[in-house]
Amino acid sequence: MTARPLAVLLPPRPEPTAPRLLAQTWLLAALVLALCAGTAWAQAVAQQTGRPGALAIMLRWAPLITSGFLLNVMVSVLAMALGTLLGLPLGLSLIARTRPLRLLGWGMTQFFRNVPWLVLLFYIMFLLPFELHLGGLVLPVPAWFKAVIGLALPVSANVAEIVRGGMQSIPEPQWSAADSLAFTRWQTISRIILPQALRRMLPPWMNLYAILTMATTLISVIGIQDGLTLTRAAIAAESRPELMVPMYIFLLLLFFAYCYPIARLTLALERRVQVRI
Amino acid sequence: MAHELGSPVVVVRDVEKRFGNYTVLREVSLTVRRGETVCIIGPSGSGKSTLLRCINGLVPISSGSITVGGREVADAKLDVRALRRDVGIVFQQYNLFPHRTALDNVMMAPVIVLHQNPAEVRARAEALLAKVGLADKMASYPGELSGGQQQRVAIARSLAMNPKVMLFDEVTAALDPETKKEVLITIQALAAEGMTCILVTHEMGFARRVADHVYFTDGGVIVEHGTPEAIFSAPTQARTRDFLDKIL
Amino acid sequence: MTGPVVDLFTWINSRTGLNFSVFTDTYDGERFITGLITTVELSVLSMVLSVLLGLAGLWMLGAGGFWRALARGYVQLFRNTPPLVQLSFFYFALGGVLPTLTDSRGAQVPAVSGFGWAVLSFSLFAGAFNVEIFRSGVEAVPSAMIEAADSLGYTRLQLYRHVLVPLGLRICLPSLTNNMVNLVKTTTLAYAIGVPELLYAAAQIWSEVMNVREMMDLLLVVYIVLVALLVWLMERWERALRVPGYTP
Fold first, then answer.
1. How far C151 CA sits from the closest chain A CA (Å)?
2. Does B58 fall in a domain?
């Protein structure tokens, strides 16, 4: 308490949550890991009939499944980037002062938010051409690229909602104050409102990213070799039904290990934002 | 208010209450007899509200003993719910259930908790609401009532359980002077009917008129107690005099 | 199949080449309607089950100890893994491990059908979110309401049933609507395990009739209408629950 001036005026600080957060993360991860390894081991014991043990098989396929999972991650990052890029102007259109623009934005947001992601994916998959002709140039459009677009569309609508919510959470006097200083509407948004709103938009945006990451498994339905497809392929190659449980648990674990920390971080950020308001 | 005073209903003996290192109540003892009206006065934060919450078991005591109708409140084997049926409490912020009408608020606990016949409870609830002057507000939701009206519904809600003793926790503190009066009249009528009442209050005039016995608390201890005359006209302790000088 | 609708779509087909076979061909129409009914059944059953799971989880969170840990584990596990992998795990892995039953005609049938696994999987997924939604709703109920119910002798079940859930529900209804909309959208995943819901039926039709574009457009419209209907119903419910003078 030595070098802290005006200690009495400082608001009570919540204890830092990081150590507990970390402990919980690892506790849960360890739990699922144990479950996974335990199942595999049990299988191995039961299968001592000359064939290789389940654990060995799991280890053999783990790199392949993980590489498929990395494709999921890559698609999620790209779709999030594209979705955010599209969602920002869409969100701004929701608070536009021109009515037709606002209505158009509202219609698009509602549409892409309320249509099943899988249906949109199918739509893009079938209706985008598999190659583009630019003059004499023939550009192939790979399936994963279509998947990115198909996922980015619903993401953009959700980003738009987050942008609108974040901007509207900034108290009205901030707008009036900027008005009275003769800022243009665009200056007010870009210099005053957005910078303040960004902090509040971050937690729901991260939440959306976690949802998107989990939704990337949908691309397996349209035939892309992602984590889920490769897990199924591994199971099919071994043709041993008792391996399905540990194989799927392994894949679930990969997603959990990626998404759970994001969820915890989102929660921590949410709390911090709430404290500051 | 001179009644025939009956047997002790609430007996508090050497009660201590600590929250962590902080002692809220120290060596508090008091006895409330059947039909008696007791007022507890004192500065804010002197532990008055905590004492009330200890009496109906909402807050556990650290040491000492509290009996209500001969039942030991601190007993681990005590049926807390049975105790709370005997002890009604009315809070400063009314705490009515906002999603139910005034009549429902009064009827809910007897029907749900005591499993009494809804038709009989209804008749009793209507009589109680009429008694507190709200015969025309039975179908209103709490949000449609003034603070004083809500507080009177809260009183009726507690009375519907047929308690042996009623606790009032600064029930007029959140009200404006106009509505305050309605509530105080209701409580006075209740006391006159012989209901045993313990009030934590800042209404000195009311305490003087209605109380049979007044306790002055400060810093978690009972500094002085006696008849309203004795406390208000001839306090023996300097702290009591200071307090009364400040607020009267 | 005759009538103005058939005529209209036959005319559209002749003029534009767009083939909405669902409206002009009896067989396709029936398949599509069956798919629609399956989707609605999947949605409604999963909604009901997920709300029950949410309530059970809420109750367990309040019970503390082992139950609380179990509820938390359930929520985190199902919230943070892909619903499609969950469904695959249930249908392929667990369904493969479960013994088969012999039906009345002596054929081997799985103990749980694809439809059954889909309902179970979607309910567990949406239920995990419902636990969180209900928890935040109940946490937003002022603690004074709990104190009031306690002082009237409510048991924990009575407190939840008559005070916390009715009040908390009003607070969290918008989030619940959101989650239920997501659930309807999630039912399309049942396509992956061959449950003949709407998307599956549409895919069957377009792969035979080669009218991908038309079926896709129709799908989008039908899902938008389904979601709009659900939102409309939920908003009606929200209005029905509205209490005068109370804003949750």
1. 31
2. yes
Domain assignment of residue C123, yes or no: yes
Question: What interface predicted TM-score (ipTM) does this complex get?
Answer: 0.89
Interchain proximity C151–B56, CB inside 8 Å: yes
Partners of residue B158 in chain C, C-beta under 8 Å: 152
pLDDT tens-digit map of C150-183? 999 999 999 999 999 999 999 999 999 999 999 9
Give the model's confidence band at B4: pLDDT under 50 very low, under 70 low, under 90 confident, else very high.
low
pLDDT score recorded for residue A31: 62
- With contacts defined as CB-CB under 8 Å, which chain C residues touch B142? 245-246
Touch test B–C: 3 Cβ pairs or more under 8 Å: yes
Q: Does the CB of C153 have a partner CB in chain B at under 8 Å?
A: yes
| Residue C190 confidence (pLDDT) | 95
Domain that holds residue C146: 32-96+111-210+227-241
CATH, range A53-276: 1.10.3720.10
CB contact (8 A) between residue B113 and residue C162: no
Asked if residue B2 is part of any domain, the answer here is no
Q: What's the pLDDT score for residue B245? A: 87
Give residue A3's pLDDT.
38
Chains near C (3 or more Cβ pairs under 8 Å): A, B
Asked whether the beta carbons of residue C189 and residue A123 sit closer than 8 angstroms, the reply is: no
Helix (H, G, I), strand (E, B) or coil at B234: coil
For C60-73, what is each residue's pLDDT tens digit?
Answer: 998 888 899 999 99
CATH code where residue C192 lies? 1.10.3720.10
Provide DSSP, chain A. --S-TTGGGSPPPPPP-HHHHHHHHHHHHHHHHHHHHHHHHHHHHHT-SSSPPHHHHHHHHHHHHHHHHHHHHHHHHHHHHHHHHHHHHHHHHHT-SSHHHHHHHHHHHHHHHHS-HHHHHHHHHHHS-SEEEETTEEEE--HHHHHHHHHHHHHHHHHHHHHHHHHHTS-HHHHHHHHHTT--HHHIIIIIIHHHHHHHHHHHHHHHHHHHHHHGGGGGTTT---HHHHHHHHHHHHT-GGGHHHHHHHHHHHHHHHHHHHHHHHHHHHHHHHHH-
Which candidate in B97, B164, B167, B170 is best for mutational testing of the C interface (most C CBs within 10 A)?
B97
Query: pLDDT (tens digit, 9 = 90+) per residue, C176-224?
Result: 999 999 999 999 999 999 999 999 999 999 989 888 888 999 999 999 9
How far does CA C217 lie from the centroid of its chain? 22
